[in-house]
Design brief:
Order of helices and strands: EEEEHEEEH
Strand order of the largest sheet: 1-7-6-5-4-3-2
CATH class of the largest domain: Alpha Beta
Strand content: 25-35%
Radius of gyration: 19 Å
Structural class: alpha/beta
Largest sheet: 7 strands, mixed
Shape: globular
Number of strands: 7
Distance between the termini: 48 Å
Number of domains: 2
CATH topology of the largest domain: Secreted effector protein pipB2 fold
Length: about 180
Amino acid sequence: MQFKYDLNPVDSIVADAIGEPGHRTFFLQGRRGRQLVSVTLEKQEVNNLAISVLQLLAELEEKYPDLAPATRPGRAPQVETSFEPAFRVAQLIIGYDEDEDMIWLIAKALVTDANGAIIDPEDERVPAARFVATRSQMRALSEYALEVVAAGRPTCPLCGRPIDRHGHFCPRTDGHAMPIVF
């Protein structure tokens, strides 16, 4: 597989968001030397990535008992100030290289043809980025990503929908309650 962006290994990697809650753009960003690659994702994709990495780390520690645990991060990963996304992600693939003791993450772009149909991510025309990181770097990415996802708008305790800063009218109250505002 050819990678348009190949950060093997990364110097740094982070999943974060920019913007106000309710209007945030979520992204994955990696740096290798002078090369900085950012790709955009949906909030749920960032959440799923973080959970998947933490599950993979737990499985690796169980499968390889002699493997030193991935260290917990001492501080939040650094986010670069410039944000020029290379593409929106259509597919994420995660894996582990046992020989190198590295976790790799492949992000494939969301690409459409002239008719607006989505091109299969397996197609060679679809750009891809590979991020190869240590287990500790991926633990830091995951733990920080979960904090970023949780820092969004609060959810309504009745209907589970997000509450905007201007308020939220809950459909479960059937019009018999004041709007909920946080």
